[in-house]
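I am writing to request your help with a piece of structural work I have in hand. A protein sequence and the structure tokens that stand for its backbone fold form the material at issue. Please examine both parts with care and let me know of anything in them that strikes you as inconsistent. The record follows directly beneath this note.
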Amino acid sequence: QGGGGSGTGGDGGGGGGSSPGCELTEGQAIGATCGIFVDAGAAGDGDGTAASPRTSIAAALDQAEAGESVYVCDAASGHTEAVTLTKSLTLVGGLDCGTWVYAAAGRTAWTAAADAIPLRITGVSTVARVEGFAIESADAQALGGSSIAVLVAEATVELERSTVVAGDGAAGLTATQPSPAAAAEAGDGGTAGCQSNGVVGGG
């Protein structure tokens, strides 16, 4: 079942918000009012500001309104979470933790537990932009299971500056051989033929 696939998002231009300081410019920090901020290595789950970021992408997406941007820094721990995105927004990874400086080469590591999909994007009206992530799904553990890193259902998604790698699928159930038919019972013996002591031939 599935697994082993990988892909790479293209190199995008400046995303993020349109307010001053919100353009993605090499070596420049994202403005503090540009969106919601996420740092997996933060001491505690904050209010989403640059000074007090959320610690999970899921929490930030729940907080975000449609049209907002969510900025995720490249914490050493990475993110291990399965997230479903149903809002039209921009999700930007690869920023420096603490300074929120943008680097085009930056990637935020993102995975999920075995048999879970790190990122699902759903909804016919959802228009999302995702960039600056290294998303990798774990090898499947459930019998016959697949490993999927990103699943898009009906939504319109722009994926930039990202790598997407699926793990290995799991083997299916072992085939079982049917039991051989039981041996038939032995039949009854036949009736003995007639015997004769007469003389054969003339005499």
